[in-house]
Amino acid sequence: MKRRILDILKSRNEIISGEQISDILGVSRVTVWKHIKGLREMGYGIASTPKGYRLENDFDVLSPWEFPGREKSIHCFSEIGSTMDAAREMARKGCPHLTVVAAERQGKGRGRLDRAWVSEKGGLYFTLIIRPEIPPQLSFRFNFCASWALAQTLREDFDIPAMVKWPNDILVKDCKLVGMLSEMETRSDMVSFVNIGIGVNVNNDTVGIEPPAVSMQELTGRKSSRAELLSAFLDRFEKRTGQIGQGDDLEKIVSDWKKYTGTIGRGVRIVTVNETVEGEAVDVDETGALLLRLHDGKIRKIIYGDCFY
Ligand code: BTN
Questions:
Q1: Based on the domain organization, do 48 and 68 belong to the same domain?
Q2: Ligand 1, from 178, 180, 181: best to mutate by most atoms within 8 Å of Cβ?
Q3: Same-domain check for residues 142 and 290
Q4: 202 alpha carbon – ligand 1 mean position (Å)
């Protein structure tokens, strides 16, 4: 019923009375009023005037209805512990390839290396569940693809000079705009699912976040639609990964990703759970590993870790 009321409000730019809506839908005005209240709680701006209702804004509501064609695969929560936990549960229960779990807020948002990820209202927090038919050794390609697809979306659709940082973050002027982490489960030496968790500072406040962060709103001076961003990202990711087979379509993904990176040539510190190493990032190889020139001139291959410029 809410969806039908929303469609009516969206199809008219003018005020429409509760009575007209109730006539169209064959329900009482009280029912209409109850669902209007529910839509407001979801974040839709609906004005009440003496003559009726008018949809004032729907530009930043995260609801499956804002993703035509993907309604069944996008699950939106107003508050959740972590989208990673909910996504893992859904993946284990067999949800389809390209399912998304998104939340307005996370009480226990997780970052890499067990850090917390501050998840205040206004940011975009989601986990994408994918089921590529590949061995686990190739799963890194999908993480690089997610980072590449989001950077390209930010650059081309939102005019934000996004740069990728190894392994998968996105920065602007060295401040963190996007954080990414992924989890994977395997079965019989093949990937069962890969869950890619992404947090984007969209319209949320980034003051006090460490390391220094920046939001799309701070960069552009205006609010952006999270649904538009997520939708454009999913379209690019799906197009680039193509028919999920052996991951062959992604052979060139690391070199495509490298076109947007500021990591190569920088002095970096790599932190893993066991150690911290410093040196100059000289390349990212075709397996996604970072090649680091240490202070003694030796090259070390780093396959995972957090990277600081
Ligand atoms: C990092 O940079 O340390 C990775 C941050 C990843 C944050 C996202 S927000 C959506 C998803 N749910 C989580 O709990 N974490 C990821």
A1: no
A2: 181
A3: no
A4: 14
Query: Which of 222, 245, 260 lies at the terminal end of a domain, its last residue?
Result: 260
Residues 6 or more apart whose Cβ sits within 8 Å of residue 69: none
Looking at the fold, whether 87 and 184 belong to one and the same domain comes out as: yes
In this prediction, residue 57 carries a pLDDT of: 78
| Same-domain pairing of 172 and 304 | no
Report the number of distinct structural domains present in the chain. Answer: 3
Ligand 1 centroid to 208 CA: how many Å? 17
Amino acid at 137: Q
CB of 110 shorter than 6 A to ligand 1: yes
Whether residue 84 has its Cβ less than 6 Å from ligand 1: yes
Write out the residue range of the structural domain in which residue 300 sits: 267-308
Answer whether 267's CB lies under 8 Å from 309's CB: yes
Cα–ligand 1 centroid distance for 267 (angstroms)? 25
Q: What is the pTM of this model?
A: 0.92
Dump pLDDT digits (tens) for 192-246: 999 999 999 999 999 888 889 999 999 999 999 999 999 999 999 999 998 655 5
Per-residue pLDDT tens digits for 48-62: 999 999 998 777 889
Residues 244 and 216 in one domain: yes
Is the CB of residue 112 less than 8 Å from the CB of residue 88?
no
* Same-domain pairing of 114 and 187: yes
Of 79, 84, 113, 304, the one to substitute when testing ligand 1's pocket (max ligand atoms within 8 A of C-beta) is 84
Same domain, 217 and 75: yes
The CATH code of the domain that includes 44 is: 1.10.10.10
**248 pLDDT more than 80:** no
Nearest ligand 1 atom to alpha carbon 82: 14
**Omega before residue 135 within 30° of 0, cis:** no
How far is the centre of ligand 1, averaged over its atoms, from the C-alpha of 181 (Å)?
Answer: 6
Given a cut of 70, is residue 173 above it in pLDDT? yes
Element (DSSP H or E) covering residue 276: strand 276-284
Helix runs in 159-259, H state only: 216-220, 226-241, 253-258
**Is 77 in the same domain as 219?**
yes
